[in-house]
Amino acid sequence: AYQIGPRVLTFSTDGDEEADDVVAISRPYMERLADLTGESVFLGIIVGRNRVVIDKIEGTGRRVAHSQRGLAVPLHVNKASRVLLAHLSEEEIEAYLRTARPLADYADLFAASATETNADVWADIHTIREQGYIEWRNPQMYGAAYIAFPVLDSEGRSQAVISIGAPLER
Predict the structure, then answer these.
(1) Residue 71 CB partners (closer than 8 Å, separation 6+)
(2) Model pTM above 0.85
(3) How far apart are CA 146 and CA 114, in angstroms?
(4) H or E element in which residue 115 lies
(5) 50 within 8 A of 72, measured Cβ to Cβ
(6) Residues of the chain whose pLDDT is less than 50?
(7) 74: closest CA among 99, 39, 43?
(8) Residue 47 pairs with which residues in a beta bridge?
(9) pLDDT per position as a tens digit, 10-49
(10) Which residues contact 45 (CB under 8 A, 6 or more apart)?
(11) Which residues pair with 83 in a beta bridge?
């Protein structure tokens, strides 16, 4: 009747060597980004069909970005998650989108989902593949800007995503 889900990551990454490795490798860069920007920095990985934040550094001052460690966000629902989706093959993405819940189902958590379609998901995927990152503004939070980019392994495969959110004035 019970199944272990991504929230198990809220307890520890001990014992998960892959997660430990990506956290250990990414952490110095996250700290440098947090020092440079003063903003919150998040590290997420794919767990099943979701992005799950496994590490974060809280920013100082007024914050526009927050994420609960262990919270599962489907790969198609927001732009940070789409960074991971963009690094899958075309076939994997198409199969994922065929079986994914409609974006509108997530409008309560992510307001932009109410008006987005799979065409918007594909547009973001193409942007990420061309630029190597994605930037966006939160229409519900005036003056909030975000950027997300992949953490690639030595073979160019995405192992994680780092995202940063900041007020536009910073």
Answers:
(1) 6, 7, 52, 53
(2) no
(3) 19
(4) none
(5) yes
(6) 3, 6, 8-13, 15-16, 18
(7) 99
(8) 50
(9) 444 454 454 558 999 999 999 999 999 888 899 999 999 9
(10) 19, 22, 51, 52, 54, 84, 159, 160, 161
(11) none
